[in-house]
Amino acid sequence: MITLALPRRYPSYCGANIWPLAALPELEVAFKALGKLIFDVGLMVAYHCDQYVSRGMKMRKDEGLEQILLRSRCHKGRLLYYFPAQLSNHEENGDSMSSWCGWHTDHGSLTGLTCAMFKRNDVEISCPDSAAGLYIRTRSGEIVKATFGENEIAYQIGETTEILSQGYLCATPHGVRAPKGKEASGVDRSTFALFMQPDWYVNRRWDEKLNFLFNCRDEKLKFSEDVYIHKEVFNAEVLLFQLIPSNDSLTFGEYSEMLLDKYYHEKT
Predict the structure, then answer these.
(1) Residue 112, SS3?
(2) 3-class SS at 200?
(3) Global pTM value
(4) What DSSP line would sit under 172-193, residue for residue?
(5) Distances (CA, A) of 24 to 43, 90, 125, 177
(6) Are 184 and 128 in contact (CB under 8 A)?
(7) How many C-beta atoms lie closer than 10 Å to residue 83's C-beta?
(8) Which InterPro entries match (predicted)?
(9) Using CB atoms within 10 A of its CB, is residue 88 exposed (0-12), middle (13-18) or buried (19+)?
(10) Strand 117-120 to strand 187-196: parallel, antiparallel, or no bridges (unpaired)?
(11) Domains plus CATH for the chain?
(12) pLDDT digits (tens, 9 = 90+) for 224-250
């Protein structure tokens, strides 16, 4: 249950959706159906993530990524739109790997993505530049273009999963490269992303003897001192304990606020 106080405390997580019912009445149903599909498949991905992490660290049944996502009310689906750049910007910045969206890592747990749709003057077209699109940086530092089709879903690991897995799973640095050249003028990009993340507030504790899940006062995420925040966020790779005292714990809502405050403070 979401009380009246929670939207005031966490407005970015608890705000009501605003649907264009008159202009596009089918959007709400289609949006929720796609989000549910990405979520259901994401739980399968999370299960296998847990199997991998459990080989290197001990986890209680309720501590794995699958259970964290299953009990959360905090997942966010977003339609992402990339405005067409001016021709001069294409020519000047087209070689940049992050010219449409700068390098960053998502701060949640797991992000599900559909492939991109490109349009010019509201008409869908093929991307005029094969080098444009989503790029990721691997653990070894290699930059790779992420290519997947319209009937496929891509998933990226977020920072919270890296932290809670003590680095066994690594957040995925990524950026989006805009098309360049004369043919790219007026071309925009659209995609759908489901940001899967822990509940911002509520805690549940698993009792192994009773095989039952109890509600507790608040959910605390335990942070280890030897996990890094990626350099894409602060222009320098910093240890997490520089932001959060070692072995301290925060709710996901508190962690989000701290990270965003730090990010925008560094940008100003």
Answers:
(1) strand
(2) coil
(3) 0.82
(4) --EEEEPP-SGGGTTEEEEEEE
(5) 30, 32, 22, 30
(6) yes
(7) 9
(8) IPNS-like_sf, Oxoglu/Fe-dep_dioxygenase_dom
(9) exposed
(10) antiparallel
(11) 27-267 (2.60.120)
(12) 655 555 555 545 455 454 555 555 667
